[in-house]
Amino acid sequence: MNRPFAIYSGALDADELGYWRFGEAGGRLTPVGAGPAFVNNGAVAGQDGYEFVHTDPDHMDAPYAGQPARAALTLEMWVRAWAVPEGAFRAIGYYYRAAGPPGLSVAATRFATPANSFIGADLGLGGGCRAIWGGADADAVLASPNPWHVAIVFENGSPTRLFVNGVLVASSALNIGVDMAAGDYTLRLGDNSYLTTPLSAVLDEVRLSCIVRYTANFPITRFGEGRRALARGPGTRAGLCAGVVG
Q1: Euclidean distance between the first and final Cα of the chain, in Å?
Q2: pTM here?
Q3: Range of the domain at 239
Q4: Residue 222's pLDDT is what?
Q5: What is the dihedral of CA 185, 187, 191, 195, to 10 degrees?
Q6: Residue 202 and residue 68: Cα distance in Å, rounded?
Q7: What domain count does the chain have?
Q8: Average confidence (pLDDT) over 85-113
Q9: What CATH number has the domain bearing residue 42?
């Protein structure tokens, strides 16, 4: 059965700083809710998101100028078709400040030895502020053809939290005792701030929020599959076949 990526059940609320459904309308870069439009640097729009290829390399940027200090943020998205060379560390999404850390990022590496593979969240404040999920279970997520959901939660006074497919898989060793500082930010997809860790994967349903969306395990549900399949493109025929096999 063809299944498009999910629509978040809590979508389109006042706490969203940006929410993008790339698979719809031929790959629109404008947000569904609040937020700036992405500037695309090479990623290719498909029926179920944007494909990033590390050899090009591709990335997408959404500017967030003049942001206030924030005590909480959640960055989440769907990922599919991981095709990064084994052993290569690659950034998936990164919300970073021009003046430096803290920032909010998610990255992963798949190794030939599954026990060494990992998915991780980082604030750029040192090892104690990282949440790393490693081992055979993480490797299986990266190896699977099915889409997977990842969410990173930042909260002043709490550890960094990493959720994969609705499960709290890792928390940082340290509680974070700072706000996300005020300043000019960029939400970058497919690479880090230095453009040195390009991604090969498909991304969709990107959402940035100024609240803690998740504190414990939560259900991953696919919403509106039939309606969205007809909306995807380009073209009605392509839309009818939209999504991924799963």
Answers
A1: 6
A2: 0.88
A3: 16-245
A4: 52
A5: -30
A6: 31
A7: 1
A8: 96
A9: 2.60.120.200
